[in-house]
Amino acid sequence: MKQVFLFILTILLFSCTHIEEYRYIPPQKEALLQEVEGLLNKGEPSQALTILDRFQRDFPDYQAEETAAIRERINGTLGSSFEESIVQEDWEIGLQILYSLTALNLSPEKWTAEDIVERNALKLLISGENTLAIRALLQVMRSGTPGEATLQSFAEFALEHNEISFGGILLPCLEENEVKPPEGFKEMVGQQLRIDKMVPATVTIWVNRGIKLEGGVGFPDRVIGSGFFIDRRGYILTNYHVIESEVDPQYEGYSRLFIRLSKDPDQKIPAKVVGWDKNFDIALLKTEIDPEISFSFFMEEDFYPGERIFAIGSPGGLENTVTAGIVSATGRRLLQLGDTLQVDVPINFGNSGGPLLNEEGDLVAVVFAGIEQFEGINFAIPGHWIMDLLPRLYQGGAVIHSWMGASVMENLLGLEVVYTVPDSPVQKAGILLGDIITGINGVTYTRITDVQKKLLQFDPGVILKVEWMHGDDTVTGFLALEERPPIPMEIALEKDSRDNVIPSLFGMKIEKTGTRLFKEEYVIKDVYRGSIADETGLSVNDPLTIIGWEIDWDQGIIYLKVKIKKRSAGFLESAIQLGAYLETANII
Q1: What would the pLDDT profile of 413-454 be if each residue is shown by its tens digit?
Q2: What CATH number was assigned to the domain covering residues 193-399?
Q3: How far is 370 from 344, CA to CA, in rounded Å?
Q4: Which of 381, 395, 421, 512 could anchor a disulfide with 405, C-beta 3.0 to 4.6 Å?
């Protein structure tokens, strides 16, 4: 019996030793290469490149031939995908791939971005996608010169449809390139675009949400807003918050969308939501109406305080109301992306989603908000931001944005990274806290909105060449953009510790110094200019103790309660509460 027991024990010991000796646990380097191979095999070459590029920077001598071969496979995959898109004349996909190839310095000799956008503009014009065609041509005109045939085709279109604003933009380009405009074109452009003539292109938006009960009494629950035609096929722009109940999956009540035409305000016409963007508070609607006139965006970007403007809308449901005012300020960062105009033109309940015009009658912005407590403080979204969104709005559904995944603060050198969201592109690329992003695709950036503007061009998966300063070193690397979550800081709070998000939300960098009475103690190491911490009067070297956190998910607000000894107050201890919106404007 003992012999049997010793035999079994020997077998067990030998087996355990054998398993322990031959069990394979891949080291970090091998695991990373396996991840690259897995992404490449799944058809995600851009994501594979992000990991591989960082790998080659961190381990330049490790399996150099193998990693170089993998990189060649990635480049070949991107090149083949580009050629396929060209053969199929899928210009939009081809353009996105070309952006990646250009960043990698692999641009095909025969093609430029302007070539592809111009071909797409003609394709859209031929297919009747006139609004998107105009946008594409304007994109070409920003950076180059369209061909003569293209200019002639668009000039004929503008004349046929009496597109006065667009014709006014097109005429200088025709003259500069000695392209003869069609007969009657100059006369059409010379017409005065009177604001009262544009009123029929506006509509009142009605969202019927049934009966609302309060205190046992029922009353009609309706949302009233404004909108305007941007397409002769019945497409209308308005604000997202006006039609939110139509598309919000969390809304479970009754909701029916209608429009009322300016010339027939008593008739309710059904409409449907095509696309929407909560970040920019904009939505595209469709109704089976062929309007006689529609708006075209004037690509004005340089607004100035004091510029005279006009709004058309339905304040309180009163259709065809025109109000006047001026631009009070520019560059107000009230939304997660982009910036807004502050205007003093009278805005009331029902104006949301209406057009904002300049003195020439050109559409320059969309009204979206006002502060009820303060008369004359209202806001509008500049048209150039919305023009960048139009293709995605027409595609339908919620607009998807790309992102890098970093919270940054502006300084003289560039954009300082104060937070990286876990598993985001910047984190995968190896960009660390304190690094300063100085350039993207060879262009220097010091303003957050400029980077956000650039990113609107790119779909998730596009590869960017990024330059950043790490200490005294300048680093160049590549990263693949990914889909931006609706509210990035919600993801950050789910995946990361609360202490790590303090710089992004409240604008101060803190360092732990110890623990006293079960409370963690910190000292402020940096305060970012213009941040909540800065406006609260907090200073570097102020000691503080975190008391607790509170999050109001419904309102999207997070509160940080601290005890602090402000240097400016003689280091007397006081308890304060800092509040910040989760929808921050400093994330790229």
Answers
A1: 999 999 999 999 999 999 999 999 999 999 999 999 999 999
A2: 2.40.10.120
A3: 9
A4: 421
